[in-house]
Design goal:
globular; 2 strands; two-stranded antiparallel ribbon; Farnesyl Diphosphate Synthase; mainly alpha; single chain
Length: 296
Amino acid sequence: MNFSALHEQIKKKTDEGLAAQVKKLPDDAPRLKAAMNHALLVGGKRMRPLLTQLVGNMLDLPSQDQLAISMAIECIHAYSLTHDDLPAMDDDDLRRGQPTCHVAFDEATAILAGDALQTLGFSILADAPLSDYAHNQRSVLLSVLAKSAGYRGMCGGQAIDLASTGQDITLETLKKLHNLKTGALLRACVEMVIVATPNIAPLEQEDLLTFADAIGLAFQVQDDILDVEGSSEQLGKPSGSDIALGKNTFPALLGLAGAKQELQKLHDKALQALARLPYNTDTLASFSELLVKRDH
């Protein structure tokens, strides 16, 4: 199976699993349920489930464990986008080429949808059937997800982003911001698979996490580049929105050429980490290529 077909297969399996998770919720609040479906299932490349399941396949993690981790992470990701798009945050009207949740429904419903998706993510990870080993690691898995989503991860990074908007910051601060805001959840994809897999040598864990950190930051650098070079049609949201909001970005700090050099350095670091692993890492190398060369 080629990489594109594998990506589509993983995306389809994840979408079906997520749809089933929302469908089985009681129908007491149908508007909220519809908003959750909109935020979770309208578009989305499923890059985080793809990363989770590529690493899981490489380490022979049972498929039920891979799917539970993937769905939990994607719920957290969807909640974060729903809240990021709100008028009090980035105030975006388009996401994945579709009206954002607060535009399609209303602001209060979008807030509740984000809240409900966040808790659904933890509920999936707490309750989904797992292999015996992963089940015994369930509390550690929940801890990794909580840290990556909260103050020490995504939320903390978003707070630094808001505080630094319109301010001059250093490259070190910009990297820290995005290691938290974007990178933490991508790192969690890899870290949670490691936690759920027995007998991974410490050096192998270190190389996998080095790969995850490098590709997580590269993902954001490419996002920043696309905000400058991409069209609104390609991106599914207004291009140039970061500039309009006075956001700190890699092109703003380093120039477009400098940002592209930083992207290449991060890509090289990710590939070097993969080369040290005693596994077939071809699909993870293809994943890295997809992240740094995507056009939307």
